[in-house]
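We were asked to recover a plausible sequence for a given structure. The inputs and outputs are reproduced exactly as logged, with field labels preserved.

PROBLEM: sequence recovery
POSITIONS: 349
GIVEN STRUCTURE:
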């Protein structure tokens, strides 16, 4: 019953009540580790949802180990999928790909189709982060195959929309976003609504509808603020900073970039932070604040050197090639960045 209560709190985005429920009941369950694993799974999934992937990984690693020890392969599949999500959200401190392939094997072995769909969706995210858009689209179609609740389908449509937008298929992407928006609204999912507003804003900006894009970004920031999503807020501020800068609002752009840096530093999203550092460095360079731009560039290079995401590293090196004061370093960075983009098939880079 307490595990169901925890799940209910997760589904209505009440992380504090979810954690209180789990933490209060676990000490009373010393002799029933399998129930503890279910509670840890719910807590871990909730922490992933609210941008605390490192804390989530501790819960999920324990849950996966207990499920495996009891031969609960369906439970282990769910724990591995959620653990892979945690590793994606922490800047790929560990490669999530093997976890997801193992989760798929377990899901197919046990007939746990919901876990399999979620694994396919997360594989799509991994491929998108690596710039492998064709493979990402193939994975998300697996996730969307079959019957599911409207809310679950909305989560997968959101990811497919991102991939379609990356492929410059903005009309198809908007159609996916609009369908997902209806489900999120009916479900009362403000985090999902924030994600949709941000996605629709990106498409509007790419198509030159700047007023609509800025309006949607502000709405997304409001929604993320309600559910305390620091990562979501960071991405919105990064996009709004770039847009304001392009439109000549330098003061507003710099303010958004500094606030965005604070938001990402308060989260565990190192990939998002790297992108925000690049955006802020480029803006500072263009307004003539070269010392500040250099500090941000060094932080981005250091961050991506420690990570395992080649796309983030390639973007940081591309920025170094653009703004570094040393000509030789710029040339070396450009060559390495071009090599990395080529190896990933990211021809725009």
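RECOVERED SEQUENCE:
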């Amino acid at each position: 019953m307490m595990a169901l209560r925890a799940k209910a709190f997760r589904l209505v985005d009440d992380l504090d009540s979810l954690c209180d429920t789990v933490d209060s009941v676990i000490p009373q369950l010393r002799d029933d580790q399998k129930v503890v694993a279910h509670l840890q799974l719910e807590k871990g999934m909730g922490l992933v949802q609210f941008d605390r992937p490192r804390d989530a990984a501790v819960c999920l690693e324990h849950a996966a180990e207990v499920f495996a020890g009891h031969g609960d392969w369906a439970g282990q599949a769910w724990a591995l999928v959620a653990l892979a999500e945690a590793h994606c959200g922490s800047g790929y401190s560990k490669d999530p790909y093997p976890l997801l392939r193992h989760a798929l094997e377990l899901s197919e072995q046990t007939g746990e189709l919901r876990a399999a769909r979620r694994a396919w969706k997360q594989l799509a995210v991994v491929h998108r982060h690596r710039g492998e858009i064709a493979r990402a689209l193939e994975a998300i179609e697996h996730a969307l195959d079959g019957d599911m609740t409207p809310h679950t389908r909305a989560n997968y449509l959101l990811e497919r929309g991102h991939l379609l937008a990356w492929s410059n298929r903005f009309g198809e992407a908007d159609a996916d976003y609009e369908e997902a928006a209806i489900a999120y609204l009916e479900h009362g999912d403000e985090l999902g609504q924030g994600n949709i507003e941000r996605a629709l804003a990106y498409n509007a900006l790419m198509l030159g509808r700047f007023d609509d894009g800025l309006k949607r970004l502000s709405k997304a920031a409001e929604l993320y603020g309600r559910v305390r999503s620091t990562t979501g807020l960071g991405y919105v501020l990064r996009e709004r900073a770039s847009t304001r800068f392009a439109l000549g609002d330098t003061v507003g752009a710099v303010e958004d970039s500094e606030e965005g840096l604070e938001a990402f530093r308060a989260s565990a999203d190192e990939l998002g932070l790297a992108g925000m550092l690049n955006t802020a460095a480029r803006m500072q360079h263009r307004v003539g604040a070269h010392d500040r731009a250099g500090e941000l560039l060094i932080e981005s290079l250091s961050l991506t050197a420690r990570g395992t995401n080649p796309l983030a590293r390639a973007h940081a090196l591309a920025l170094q090639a653009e703004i570094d004061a040393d000509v030789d370093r710029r040339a070396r960075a450009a060559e390495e960045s071009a090599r990395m983009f080529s190896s990933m098939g990211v021809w725009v880079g």
